[in-house]
Design a protein that fits this description.
The protein has 560 residues and is α+β, with helices and mostly antiparallel strands. The chain starts with 5 loop residues before the first helix and ends in a 9-residue tail after the last strand.
């Protein structure tokens, strides 16, 4: 038999009392109908737990003028999210594609890299077998017309050019090209297709037995790209690896876990997360990683964040390899992207993550005070932290010890095993001027035009280095070019900055070949003191030897 509980008995009674009170109150006040008073009382009863919804409902139904609630929500939601941590964010539908594309690993377009340094769209590289390659577009071509609309010399923003060139796969864009040696406009139709976005910007053998991989972000395809890169490097005799995470602000958490798994041995903890209910999810290596036998040096800096810190922390806490560079950003929060029906989304912080020794590396923040949080890196610079490890202090309460006996700290980023300061030794006023006014980069574009045939013939790093080595007048030719652009030679400055200038010239010219970023990084590393120190460490260090923190003197200038 059904038995009445205390709640089933009381609820009808309370409801009846509420109705009677509403009738009496409405009659007494004489201002609104009984039904209106009852709705108001019931709404008021829900107010403490649903104040925002109630307020929006009042505006929608009672406000004197009509209001677009969608528009109002677009203003209100960001203000609401701003009162949370610095990494929770509302993403409007109009921005979703641009934010997700780099992480998803592809977009729809024509498959070229271009630059607009001289207000003309100059094709720097064409993706092999991509839509533009199939249509006959060549590196060095200028795009002067897009769909019969003139774009050359009209100060059109680069973002607008990108918008015109991209479009749904299968659609056609008509281009008018200016080509060296051809007097007439070359007209081509390009059928847009799927263009891959590489998360690994560069991978090559940098020294005898040592490979270099530069990872730009943790995208959907990162682990797959890593497998391919390591396999190719092994074929070139690589047994040690420099993994460059500098400037990598993160991406997908699962890709960081998968990459850590590549290096760690079975049963080693990679990371664990903890949510508001203190429920933990722990991730362990499964022993199937393809890089377990590789000695590794991981490079980080103040822009290395989130997934970069998960990977660096996992290797550091398991005494796996050496971390070099400067203290990382300090983002120890995990976001989940929750979609709305209109195509927008909320990236909401749902957990904190901890390194294997139990470190939270989240730097302090005050809820609602994003400005102070964003100024942290400037404060580090002002406090000399970019140049001296002695300027960085951690509380003893944040101290942890790895299985190998290495002391590590939480509380604001990953502190490298070997601190390497930012190096400005060879940065002179002349160098800053030619770089700041974009003269150095524009010279490399013009150089590529003059040597387009030779650069298009480059198929390997050896080809590129032979070509660049044959030009002994490179720096002096640039100095003459800079003088024509209004920067007079300062011989003392040029002598001091010569290696830095030459490395940047070679690097940007190298990027104008089919080698793309491999051509850049293979020429910039000799003036990169972090990379050169990593080569030293890997050349002399035995696998998995625990490292004690130290400070390294500048070995070579840093690339700017």
């Amino acid at each position: 038999m059904y038995k009445n509980s205390k709640h089933t008995v009381l609820f009808p009674l309370l409801l009846a009392v509420g109705v009677v009170l509403g009738l009496l109150l409405g009659h007494y006040l004489g201002r609104n109908s009984t039904a209106s008073q009852l709705r108001g009382m019931l709404s008021h009863m829900a107010l403490p737990t649903n104040k925002l919804t109630y307020t929006l409902s009042l505006i929608e139904n009672e406000y004197v003028d009509s209001v677009s609630m969608d528009s109002l929500s677009e203003h209100v939601i960001p203000l609401l999210i701003k009162e949370l941590d610095p990494h929770s964010v509302y993403i409007p539908a109009s921005e979703m594609q641009a934010l997700n594309e780099p992480l998803e690993g592809e977009f729809d377009g024509i498959g070229v890299m271009f630059n607009m340094a001289t207000d003309t769209v100059i094709i720097l590289n064409v993706i092999p077998q991509g839509p533009s390659d199939k249509a006959g577009i060549k590196a060095g071509d200028r795009i002067v017309e897009i769909d019969d609309s003139l774009v050359a010399g009209r100060n059109i923003p680069q973002t607008e050019i990108v918008k015109r060139l991209r479009g749904p796969r299968g659609t056609t864009v008509h281009l008018g090209l200016e080509r060296l040696g051809i007097s007439d406009i070359v007209e081509v139709d390009v059928v847009r297709g799927v263009i891959p976005i590489k998360s690994i910007e560069s991978s090559f053998r940098i020294a005898d037995g040592i490979g270099y991989i530069k990872l730009g972000q943790f995208a959907r395809t990162t682990c797959e790209e890593f497998h391919a890169a390591v396999s190719r490097l092994r074929g070139e005799g690589v047994t040690r690896l420099i993994f460059d995470l500098r400037g990598n602000s993160g991406g997908y958490l699962d890709q960081a876990i998968l990459l850590a798994n590549e290096f760690l041995h079975e049963g080693q903890l990679i990371v664990y997360t903890e949510d508001r209910r203190h429920e933990q999810v722990r991730e362990y290596a499964d022993g199937t990683g393809s890089a377990q036998d590789l000695e590794v040096a991981v490079l980080i800096d103040e822009w290395s964040a989130s997934s970069s810190e998960i990977l660096a922390g996992a290797l550091q806490d398991n005494d796996r390899g050496t971390i070099l560079g400067r203290r990382s950003f300090g983002k120890g929060l995990v976001q989940r992207q929750i979609p709305y029906s209109d195509g927008s989304a909320l990236r909401l912080t749902t957990a904190r993550y901890y390194t294997p020794t139990g470190r939270s590396i989240q730097k302090p923040y005050t809820i609602g005070d994003d400005a102070s949080y964003e100024e942290d890196l400037w404060i580090r610079y002002r406090n000399n932290e970019f140049f001296s490890a002695d300027s960085i202090h951690f509380a003893d309460s944040l101290k942890r010890t790895t299985p190998g006996g290495k002391v590590v700290y939480g509380g604001g980023g990953i502190m490298p095993d070997i601190f390497i300061p930012a190096d400005t030794t060879d940065v002179t006023k002349y160098f800053l001027e030619v770089v700041g006014r974009n003269i150095l980069y524009r010279y490399t574009i013009e150089y590529a035009d003059r040597h387009r045939g030779a650069l298009n013939a480059v198929q390997s790093l050896d080809d590129l280095q032979r070509l660049l080595d044959s030009d002994s007048d490179l720096v002096e030719d640039f100095v003459r070019y800079a003088a024509r652009q209004g920067v007079a030679p300062r011989r003392a400055d040029i002598a001091r900055s010569r290696k830095l200038i030459e490395a940047q010239l070679r690097a940007y010219i190298g990027r104008n070949t089919a080698l793309e970023d491999n051509g850049f990084y293979a020429n910039i590393y000799p003036v990169d003191n972090v990379v050169t120190r990593a080569i030293e460490v890997l050349s002399t260090q035995t696998p998995q030897t625990p490292q004690t923190p130290e400070t390294a003197a500048p070995a070579a200038p840093a690339a700017s």
